[in-house]
Design brief:
This protein has a single domain (12-202, 212-435), classed as MFS general substrate transporter like domains (Growth Hormone, Chain: A, Up-down Bundle). The protein has 16 helices and no strands. It has helices at 2-8, 14-41, 46-77, 80-107, 111-139, 141-144, 150-174, 177-195, 214-225, 229-258, 264-289, 298-318, 330-334, 339-366, 373-400, 405-435. By secondary structure, the protein is mainly α. This is MFS transporter.
Length: 436
Amino acid sequence: MTTTTHLLRSRRFLPLFVTQLLGAFNDNLYKNAMVLFVVYSIYNSEEAEAQFSAIASGLFILPFFLLSALAGQLADMRDKAKIIRIVKACEIGIMIVGGTGLFLAWRGMATESFAIPLMLTALFAMGVHSTFFGPIKYAILPQHLHEGEVLAGTGLVEAGTYIAILVGTILAGWIPIEVAAVGVFLTAVVGYLAGRHVPPAPPEVAAEPLDWNLLRSSVVLVRNTMHDNRVFLAIMSISFFWTIGAVLFIQFPPLAKNVLLASKEVASLFLVIFSIGVAIGSISINALLKGRVSARYSPVSVIVMGLFVVAFYIVCRAWGYHAGEGLMDVGTFISQPLAVPLLLSLLGIAVAGGMFVVPLYAFLTTFVPKSQTARTIAANNIVNSGAMVVGSVMAVSLSVAGISVTDQLLLSAAMCLVSAWLGRKLFLAEQQALKV
């Protein structure tokens, strides 16, 4: 804990931590306020609700697939702190657009013809914002932190991200939509002010011309990054993890409403429990590994995650009919006999997931030259986002095919086995490299 406390007091880390925390908070306050309002106040069909949730997730993820190569080039060849300030300034404008969409939806003014498209446009733009910030938040750590601090810093960034998701998700489920419209704008302003205090992070290599051909630059970046077997395995493991996460997050709102007969506050509670769990897992794995970057515990962590997904599925299938009128509020939901096993299963999924993914991100930032760190993270984001878009499309397709959101949970459990296999191969490659 000494390293963690020291980092949180250091200007080398704290402004970046706060900027990232506020960005993650704003992403989730906006996205969840929008999705929960549409699912609970506009649509009345499980299929339509699941499709909207998947479309929203897909739009947010798509920029990572399209623009990560350009983002990685910029982050490695320009001052990272300057890029942060530009990106956070853009967030203010994006949230003016998104907040306007939320306000119009609240007023019921041209909801489907104008307000929803406006909200989805802002969500896509926030995806662009996160695409350009994403490589920096990890790549800047080896530049500002000492070697023994990188795993702790990565764990703090990951834990802080999920704490921010937690708070944003809670507020999205509980505050009125018109308050959320103002809140996202104010948060963007504070995030910009925090970003101005991030210390300079000049490029480690001489600036080169940027490749503006998005397709070519993405292919070249991924190909050049994947030649190292360990980096390839780490990226593939993370990609399967986030595919699982995308499917789960898409399922939560319609599952809470249509299977558990619970209110949007309960759907928000699910996301809160998930966020707490990932934060716990992120901090715990640093203690287990004692600051050493290794995939040692990744295979068993994701297998445990899969077992908890199966447990969550079993409890959902056994969920009894709620005889009361309307959707259950949080208090009524918690009083149900299977509520505690359901929430504990969800917590277990998240804790194990955090323990799986954090060392892999630290691996990507420490096993490549500092001059290539941002592009390595960008290549990871391209593959991750492609996998998550596939997960979103699969979720939509399964809903259209009439497969219930409950049965779709088994898909997530099956994908955990693939992640475990990849994590095991990564650990073996890591051990082999130590012998050379």
